[in-house]
Every structure is written in structure tokens, then in C-alpha cells.
Amino acid sequence: MSGIQRTALVLAIIGAINWGLIGFFRFDLVAALFGGQAAAFSRVIYALVGLAGLYCISILFKPDEEIERIPETER
After folding, report:
1. What is the pLDDT of residue 73?
2. Quick check: 29 and 17 in contact, CB under 8 A?
């Protein structure tokens, strides 16, 4: 898995955790950490999480052999 794929998955996981906290406890962790939902840095985080989620859609439809290729030297 490439670095960009791992980064996208980490951001998507952060978004999922944040939405879980909002759904269960009405607590927005990103807003709490970065100064509210309207704060510029919070909006950047929300945008990055959204873009990562969209990128993860492409990962979902890739065949397994394209996602993780083990070089011949490591087999």
C-alpha cells in the first residue's frame, strides 16, 4: 500500500471516529481541538477528511493484487 493510500485511510478513520463521537455523544473532536467548526484550520481538516474519503472509494474498487504487491526479493 502506498503512502498516499495509507494517509487517505488514516484521514478517513479520523473522520469516522469524529462522526462516531458526534453521533453517540454530540461531541465534535475536530472542532474542539481546532477552535470550532467555523475556524479555518477545522475547515481544512474537514476538507482533507472529505477528500481522503473520496480517494478511498478508488481504493475500494482496486483488485487486491494492485493494492499490496510483495516484491520478489521479499518472498
Report:
1. 67
2. yes
- pLDDT for residue 13: 95
Mean pLDDT (10-residue bins), the chain, 75 residues: 91 96 96 93 95 92 69 62
Residue 10: partners with Cβ closer than 8 Å, 6 or more residues away: 52
Angstrom distance (rounded) from CA 40 to CA 47: 11
CA angle at residue 58 from 72 to 74, to 5 degrees? 10
Cell of 54: 473520496
Which sequence spans correspond to the domains of the chain? 3-66
